[in-house]
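lol ok so funny story. i was supposed to be doing the assay writeup but got distracted and ended up predicting the structure for this chain instead. priorities right. anyway since i did it might as well share w the group, maybe its usefull for someone
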Amino acid sequence: MKSTSSEILFISDLHLTPDRPLIIKLFCQFVNERAIYSEALYILGDFFEYWIGDDDPANGLESIFEAFDTLKKHNIPVYFMHGNRDFLISSGFEKRAHCKIIPDPKIITINSNKIILLHGDSLCTKDTQYQKFKQLVRSDTWKEEFSSKSLAERKSIVEGLRDTSKTETSNKDEEIMDAEQEAIDEIMRDEKVDYMIHGHTHRPNIHNSTLDNRTITRIVLGDWYEHGSVLSVKTQSNNEGLDYNLEGLQ
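and the output, tada:
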């Protein structure tokens, strides 16, 4: 069955976990009522609250994979980008969810508009403590050592890291945890793009600014803690620039 809507959808920061069944239900509803009619779905990281490895049976998350099965049946391409909570997702998940893992950053083109996609954590350059931690856990050495442990051990470690992160985050200045304009300008200048889409900061908004005498637009996706958030980009439009809408979902 072919899609019937001229839109590409972008979501991030769902932080899905069996502890939040209403958000899982909202995602499944979003798939069945919206995503199956789209041209493609991009998930820009932190889809899960945490992911300890593709060998995890993911008990309590069965309906999520059923939703991915539904997307496959409707021939909807799904693209997945790692976040800071689910960077251990690899080929096993890719196969199970019928998705394609894409790098961070990733450049795509819609209606001749070049767009750079990121999870968003790489833009928070003032949070040096987090950037050092990210460099550690993304190393092959750390990932190999972590993956060698039992599922129970991995879950205990991740839950401990999550609790530590919550404590540290509560003590950090809000400005430190936001995207830095200098980092934004640098990557948009280097990649020669006018549009950026990212999540991570949980601050949904549209930011327009000037860079090298041209207007650039940064679209920040919202999280799914209280309600859903989705960006729709039209693929059939008479607009000269990108035709988009950042929406909340209930």
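The mean pLDDT is 93. The chain has one domain: 7-249.
back to the writeup now i swear
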